[in-house]
TrEMBL record:
<dbReference type="GO" id="GO:0019213">
    <property type="term" value="F:deacetylase activity"/>
</dbReference>
<keyword id="KW-0460">Magnesium</keyword>
<keyword id="KW-0378">Hydrolase</keyword>
<dbReference type="GO" id="GO:0016787">
    <property type="term" value="F:hydrolase activity"/>
</dbReference>
<protein>
    <submittedName>
        <fullName>ChbG/HpnK family deacetylase</fullName>
    </submittedName>
</protein>
<dbReference type="GO" id="GO:0005975">
    <property type="term" value="P:carbohydrate metabolic process"/>
</dbReference>
<dbReference type="GO" id="GO:0046872">
    <property type="term" value="F:metal ion binding"/>
</dbReference>
<keyword id="KW-0479">Metal-binding</keyword>
<dbReference type="InterPro" id="IPR011330">
    <property type="entry name" value="Glyco_hydro/deAcase_b/a-brl"/>
</dbReference>
<keyword id="KW-0119">Carbohydrate metabolism</keyword>
<dbReference type="Pfam" id="PF04794">
    <property type="entry name" value="YdjC"/>
</dbReference>
<dbReference type="InterPro" id="IPR006879">
    <property type="entry name" value="YdjC-like"/>
</dbReference>
Amino acid sequence: MKHFLRIALSLFLMGQGLSAQKSLQERLGYSNDAKLLIVHADDLGVIHGVNQASFKAMQEGSVSSASIMVPTPWLPEVAKYATANPDHDMGIHLTLTSEWQLLRWSPVAPRSQVSSLVNSNGYFYPDCNTLWENAKIEEVEIELRAQIEKAIAMGIQPTHLDSHMGCLFSTDPRYYQLYTKLADEYGIPAMVNHQIEQLGGDEIEEPPVVIDQIFGAGTEDFDKDAMGKYYADTLKNLEPGVHVMIIHCGYDNMESQGMSFEHPYWGAKWRQDDYDFFASDECARILEEQNIHLVTWKEIGKLLKK
């Protein structure tokens, strides 16, 4: 009997080891050489045009996921859409900065509880460096929890967490530790690739889900008016694995131009270019020709519940 139990235990542990060695794409039900991609639209909530372009690109184009900025003024429109479309994939774009000159936002938590996160006018700082110089990490946690809880209270069921402007990807490991801790507590994945994972230091446990690469157009592509070329080339050269393409949908209209006044990068034209490509037949054709499968954070999140 003891001999039998030893064999059974050995087989069980062997099976566990084989399961642990499976690639993320295999865990999602694909072959190890499959190319999986999340096309991820950032900044929902910031203005009406960003919301509408992102919704349309999700419904009719190749966008498979989106990310919500809870402190921003058009959050109610996103909440209305999310409750009416519960199958859509929407996470929380954890926000600690307010970068536009003429469109600013403030913390969700009471200012008295997060005073280190704001300037003299009560708005978030415009960039991550200023945030890192002034913020108290305990107040960062108060604010991020407030953002997640507000989204849930408005009927949004977040599928993942990620970081606006990468402010949680600091060389101070406490930011990364807080980021992954919140994802673990809410039972959803955090957007972490192998580079971001290193920010946690050697003593941090590996998160349950680590994607391969995060892509996004750069300022050089915008300056050369080559956004579509960058996206097409990246898709055609995509390697097996699970990847994220971060984009910013919107319309080049007066609302978006007002938001991005004297700030062309990630502004009105940039967002129109992103929308035009990922809503296009060309994008859909390349995805099909390259055998790239669009997936969602919700699918990845189900792995955490198994």
